[in-house]
């Protein structure tokens, strides 16, 4: 195992839904490839409750146990920045690699829409982990 795993930050406006899902799945699926963090340009008092419920049902991950909505300024130095596709200009974050996943926000939508987003994030986390050693 490497001495220093790259740090990946998943960024979204409120850091309450997509970025939180990505952080949780990154910790579960890719802990040997990168460290997972999430943050936003604003915060919410709690993580989206539909996301919390579905992640518990599908992956037995309790996001509220270890995660909370936080600002970009609270992140450690980051190697990989993944924006969720918020259609807003994020502040520049120094990093070695960046990509945008272009995901629609499922907030206030039905479980089917939430599950589509969760499935896409799952696939993208696996793909990021697979190519991580070539990125950094």
From TrEMBL:
Transmembrane segments: none
Domain Phosphotyrosine protein phosphatase I: 6-131
InterPro entries: Ptyr_pPase (IPR023485), Ptyr_pPase_sf (IPR036196)
Top-level division of the source organism's lineage: Bacteria
CDD domains registered for this protein in UniProt: LMWP_ArsC
Keyword Hydrolase in record: no
Coiled-coil regions, chain positions: none
The keyword Phosphoprotein is assigned to this record: no
SUPFAM superfamilies in the record: Phosphotyrosine protein phosphatases I
GO terms (BP aspect): response to arsenic-containing substance
Name under which the protein is recorded: Arsenate reductase ArsC
Organism: Dielma fastidiosa
